[in-house]
Amino acid sequence: MNWLTNKVLPKINLFGGKKDTPENLWEKCPACNQMVFHRELEESQHVCPHCDHHMRIGPEKRFASLFDDGAYTKIELPEVPADPLKFRDSKRYVDKLKEYRNKTGVRDAVAVAIGTMAGTKTVIAAQNFEFMGGSMGTAAGQAIIVAADRARAENAALIAICASGGMRMQEGILSLMQMPRTTIAVQRLNEAGLPFIVVMTDPTTGGVTASFAMLGDVSIAEPGALIGFAGPRVIEQTIREQLPEGFQRAEYLLEHGMLDMVVHRRDLRDTLIGVIDVLLTPYRPLQPCEAAEPAEPEQPDVPEFLIPSAPSVDGLDRDGEDGTAEDKPSEK
User: Fold this and answer.
1) Which of 53, 80, 140, 319 has the fewest CB atoms within 10 Å, counting from its CB?
2) What is the DSSP letter of 226?
3) 32: domain range?
């Protein structure tokens, strides 16, 4: 993309030649259907300037927006069996994997990177919804475990950015096994005294919600994110009732105590830095205060004429107060 297509709106044809507009100059907002110019979208971190809808973005853009100066090192993830169950539906599972790998340029739905946030070493594991809906199979589960182990080895915080439709059905029980495996990995991180922060984006559903996504020390969500186990349509069909407006959206969950905060994408980095700083600050017990000596009560100022004078002892004798002898019975 040259300076002409980058700066000049594609509707203007300066030279009257054949119109040749790259397809990625404009993007349609899925919420308000407004067309947004690509430069404006990049500057807003893929948040619609018209309706504030938070569009889905991949791990690379997440890493670039969160780490200091956009600098980070990707962590190599281990290879896992591609198709252990030899699954086939409309097409073979291995063929579907190849298709999504060619489309997205990544091997699976989770990427892990390490870098610094305000100088503090941090590990981030981010799910990619573009890869089979961010579904979690053996490879994705192993990536979460590698991220947790690396965070423990580096004595660093771990941030999980969730964007998933749930577990990967093509791997059957092997996919479901990633739920307890990732839970144990988070538990080990907790035992090491290291923070685990979860950022839930649209959507975070299924087995991901039922496992590590709900285990964060602090749970954060982007505005409008769909968060739940089963989708609202499935719930409505099951209970045969109309769900409340905004049900399973981030703001609804925050109101009902399922989240700690809902944070706009432009404020996410600063919020995460603040949370990590608080969670990594060592506990300092309050020092007991030294007991102060009790102060003597102050005497009120009273005029002298109100203070009674003490009686004089000059006029007193042994028998009476006024010097007169008292009659006493004689002893005979």
Assistant:
1) 319
2) B
3) 1-55
CA distances from 240 to 186, 205, 235 (A): 37, 21, 8
Residue 322 domain-assigned (yes or no): no
Q: How far apart are CA 243 and CA 222, in angstroms?
A: 21
- Among the candidates 40, 55, 70, a domain finishes at 55
Q: Tell me 76's DSSP state.
A: P
Residue 131, helix vs strand vs coil: coil
* pTM of the predicted protein model: 0.79
Tell whether 128 and 248 lie within a shared domain.
yes
> Which of 21-25, 186-190, 204-208, 251-255 comes out lowest in average pLDDT?
21-25
**Do 17 and 136 fall within a single domain?**
no
Give the number of domains in the chain: 2
DSSP state of 114: E
Q: What is the pLDDT of residue 2?
A: 56
pLDDT more than 70, % of the chain: 78
Beta strands in the chain (DSSP E): 26-28, 35-37, 72-74, 110-117, 120-127, 157-164, 196-204, 218-221, 261-262
Other beta carbons within 10 Å of 81: 10
Same domain, 169 and 210: yes
- Write out the two tokens for 299: 């005497």
pLDDT in tens, 70-89: 999 999 999 999 899 999 98
**What tokens does 66 get?**
């969160």
**Is 251:225 a contact under the CB 8 Å cutoff?**
no
Of residues 107, 127, 95, the one with CA closest to residue 205: 127
Q: CA 175, 139, 214 angle in degrees (round to 5)?
A: 65
